[in-house]
TrEMBL record:
Subcellular location: Membrane
Membrane topology: Multi-pass membrane protein
Parts of the chain that traverse the membrane: 141-165, 198-219, 231-251, 263-282, 371-394, 406-427, 439-461, 473-493, 499-523
Keywords: Membrane, Transmembrane, Transmembrane helix, Transport
Organism: Lolium multiflorum
Name of the protein described by the UniProt record: Major facilitator superfamily (MFS) profile domain-containing protein
Amino acid sequence: MLPPTPLAALLVLPATPAPRPRLGLAPSSRRARGTLVVRAAALPALRRRLEFWPSRLAAVESGPPSSQSSAPPPQPGVESSGFGGGGGGDGGGDADFGWVRVFPHVLTASMANFLFGYHIGVMNGPIEDIARELGFQGNPFLQGLVVSIFIVGAFFGSLVSSALVDYLGCKRTLQIDSIPLILGAFISAQAHSLDEMLLGRFLVGIGIGVNTVLVPIYISEVAPTKYRGSLGTLCQIGTCLGIIAALSLGIPSESDPHWWRTMLYAACVPGFLIVAGMQFAVESPRWLAKVGRLDDARKVVEDIWGASEAEKAMEEMKSVVVNDDSQASWSELLSEPHNRVALIGGSLFFLQQFAGINGVLYFSSLTFRDVGITSGILASLYVGITNFGGALVASNLMDKQGRKNLLIGSYLGMAFAMFLIVFSISFPLDEDVGHTLSITGTLLYIFTFAIGAGPVTGIIIPELSSARTRSKVMGFSFTVHWICNFVVGLYFLELVKLFGVGAVYAGFGGVSLLTALFAYNFIVETKGRSLEEIEMSLSPAAPGEPK
């Protein structure tokens, strides 16, 4: 039996004005390092947008909110599909196509997630054939190393990602990052030794580590506010489709022991498509504004959000980047308000991994085998299709129900699914009933993970981050993700041997309940609010504002 593959990341959206909330943050100096400086001239416009912010933003400090806030209705004459229009983005009764202009750009970027999913799924079937041909058959440690070296590469990729994004921007980084993805796939495909296979997988991991940080940032900064959550789920959808593609393409490997080379050569193709496609994609307007290219940023906003939104959008962007053109340092994540966002980001990924996604995926093949589905690839396809279905539901709900509600509901559903499986294992039941409950619990867990815990985690972290430290916070959060992914995969089987599957799954259910409680108390709803609105509300008092 093979060690668990790193599938978690694959799957690894008032009647009276209220004063601007400050989350209990201590006042800072007028120009402290890591604190955003706001131009006084831009404050009136920002104040108008902040008036509808609910007092429950104080939840980050004081506890759960008492009520759900609502965004103001769109102003007459302003396109609701634009940069902050439409509030929650429910769409109304008419057909809403405000997302069409930006869709090709985010779709191209999300191809990187397709490649991520493909490289996870590509080893699911043919690992035994690879081990036989490269001379390490019967060695579970080396087979596990071929799988897990991918995570090691991703760890290093996530560490260097922020420097690349800050210096080169999202567009060029996506293109350059395709080099290790293409090269690593090619080396793996023509490998004639274990060392060559490990080198190829490590290079692919580096590329994936950069992309998993980069793509959510790009989508959050390019997408209009109204559609940011739904478009953000393309990361999860792309990953699911990549897994399904790899598993489907891997079916011939059951009869052709050399088919794995064809599968790895095929992994080069999406890399070339990303390089070519991003040549026609826009750069992030937020990054352009941050590096002083305001005219270019305005042109991008006019092209993908509409000319009517350009002035308002540029005013907001300039208000958070003025006099702040230096590069952020890692040490800034230790200062307020960035430390709070970094803590939330790292905690979400920590809890996500220890809620047991890797363990459930590992044991899913055994669960399906108990009901007569002996093909590991076929069982993985059932899981992949369930995951894809959940991601589609999430894309429809993200900008309607909001990130926080989906996250809480997701983890509650995962906890229920875990306890259902524990019940089927721990209590004397008819064999068919027990197997049915296990299958139901497994698929329910995957589905509920896909509607919240999977996509929301990657969407909400860049939304809560400031323009200055967004790449650093995402890099830190995904570094935590990869470390936890590796640890869970390394010790999962040992825990099962010591305590049994039922006890371990009960622990996963407990962590899921804890995560739902964490989300209820500490996650701020970001639906229908521009990144600048969120940033201003989470920042200490600006110059000229009352302390």
